[in-house]
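Quick check before the chapter quiz. The format below is the same one you will see on the exam, so make sure you can read both the input and the output lines.
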Amino acid sequence: MVKSGIHILVVDDERGLCAGLQEALTREGYSVDAANDARSALQLMSQRLYNLVLTDVKMPDMSGLQLLKEAKQKSRDTVFLLMTAYGTIESAVEAMKEDAYDYLSKPLDMRRLRAVVLKALEFQALVAENSELRLRVQTRSETGLLVGDSQAMRSVAQLADELARSDVTVLIEGESGTGKEIVARTIHIKSARAGQPFISVNCAALHEQLLEAELFGHVKGAFTGAVADKPGRFQLADGGTLFLDEIGDLSAKGQGDLLRVLEDGAFRMVGGTKLIRVNVRIVAATNKKLQEIVAAGKFREDLWYRLQIVPIAIPPLREHPEDVPLLVASFLEHFTAKHKRRRKKLSAEAMRLCQRFPWPGNVRQLRNVVERLVLTCRDGAIEVKDLPDFLREHDQTAASFAIRPGMTLAEVEKLLIRQTLTHSTSNREEAAKLLGISRRSLQYKLRQYGLIDERETPAAD
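Here is the expected output.
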């Protein structure tokens, strides 16, 4: 338990005692706030999630028991310790009935207080760790698992499964945040190399002067600061998979160095003379359209041919919004376990708003929003009011959409059909009427553009 990450609130109308308890618990390493009445405590609790609240029972205006009852409605995970100089068996029983963890009598024994606080926090962690949620999340949050049941994502998963059975070089293309590394890890985890290293390299972050040493390692004395031999990423990935992320940002020198290794299967460490061979599978990824930057002369055509033996295109989240509920459920499971929160769920309207939003940051942006909601929303049901401003302010009616120059007619038609079904009506017969086509024609176009589950039976006129 990292005490600095534990937030405690002390509530007592005796200002001297309240300040003393705050100071004593702060010295123990906890992050401690203080309030001198229940109303102020509730205001603080609306701004921050507290692991534990230590409150006096007898206070003016609102008692500690009333504070407990009201606070528990909004933050069930918070543990309460009650203290009073008016301790009786009856009040202790009432406190326990209201889900208080323990009951302390004044004057306080500081040694006992420290022990009870520690036990209460351990109890809180144990509840979260022993919930059935923990077991599900442990499996669901594995980095190599793809989430999505749309036709587009099923196609990606199916291709990843097929490629896992071979050692062919793979190029993954997709916008930032679509989950390119997830796909790469899926291929690795489902391959015969699963028990070997998966080494990730961000090519955009490698300075050209350090690139060769990072990829291939260096020997002692190769340059100033090289005080010992250091293996490169290729050696670290021996037997496993080397994931070259943002390959489109690789420098011209780096492209040449990489091409030589792909062609010869061998390299020398910087400053070394020994030829080194490793057994590494290459999976590359980019958020750029490599074919376009090849045509612009900014990426080697021969290297591109070597990389894109089997390409995988990951669609942006806005093109498969039907996967948003599955993604949200997966992220909620993961983050409620990680942050020791009980289960939460988006309301139907909040989920519909999330599905309507275009998510320019893709799955990564959605993941960050869900983590924020887990940390800031105290209720089990996450409502529209709990969502970030940019989501709530988004035009939910989406009466118009942008057509970018260079889009094909098919792309425009696909977008129009999707927007109609998402923002106007999900009923396909009504959507067909709005679009001025028959239901059978709409059904055909849904299949043509991958907007429908191919397992569905064709509609009859």
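If your answer matched, good. The chain has four domains: 3-130, 151-313, 320-389, 397-461.
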